[in-house]
Amino acid sequence: MDAAPLEVVRADAQLESAQTTVVVAARAVRDGLADAWVSVGHTGASVASAVLTLGRIQGMQRPALAVVVPALASPVVLLDVGATTTSSVATLEQFALAGHAFAQAVGVSNPAIGLLTIGSESGKGDELRVEADTHLREVLNARGLVYAGPVEGFDVTRGNRAQVIVTDGFTGNVVLKSIEGAAAWAAHQIGLAYGDSGPARGVVRAAAAGDFAGGLLLGVDGVTVVGHGAGTAAQVIGCVELAQRAVEQDVIGNISAALSGLQ
């Protein structure tokens, strides 16, 4: 993330006469003038504005960007995909609880939660992933939630083992961009092979669904959607629709309830 936009937002957020659009928009939500705000600008600046202006939900140490992946068996909520680049066991637990609440809001009943790592067996991965696996198994089962255990990259687009997949923002962003690139390649190759035939159009549309409109920023006290800076008109509309659904389903309230009791 570039330092300049972040510094401008941090400085502007302290002023009553804010000038940057991301601060003005976030303040509209804070002050009750809007139910949600959508940004297709600098991701770091958008996240900083949301945190500084709206504040964090109690129990959430760091925000997480969550996207809905149109997987084969069921939609999958993947988080974090870039709000912050590092995580701890505690933040991964918070991501799991927030992601579970978000998944239910978008229509996934009783979602299973998975931890993204390099193998499906316990003990695989780095120290963080190994420790987080043990911790998540204990705390999620104690809450009556379904923990699928460690999952791998291909589980993100399969959707049969876990419908909420948590990871750090660095890894999540790499996974997200890889899915987008693969979907674009598939759509292009199908178009070359089959032209504009009816079946081909349907497959191309399905592949294009991997080019995500935007992500919901979980953990801040106001509905915030962050989209692509180079997004299409359809993607911007998708961001607005995601924001509307988050408001209608009271995602913020549900996340607050899920995180109650956490420090």
From TrEMBL:
UniProt keyword list: Cytoplasm, Lipid biosynthesis, Lipid metabolism, Phospholipid biosynthesis, Phospholipid metabolism, Transferase
Subunit description: Homodimer. Probably interacts with PlsY.
Name this polypeptide is given: phosphate acyltransferase
HAMAP family per record: PlsX (MF_00019)
UniProt-listed InterPro entries: FA_synthesis, Phospholipid_synth_PlsX-like
Cell membrane among keywords: no
GO molecular function: phosphate:acyl-[acyl carrier protein] acyltransferase activity
Catalytic activity reported: a fatty acyl-[ACP] + phosphate = an acyl phosphate + holo-[ACP]
Gene Ontology CC annotations of this record: cytoplasm
Pfam families found in the cross-reference section: FA_synthesis
GO biological process annotation, one example: phospholipid biosynthetic process
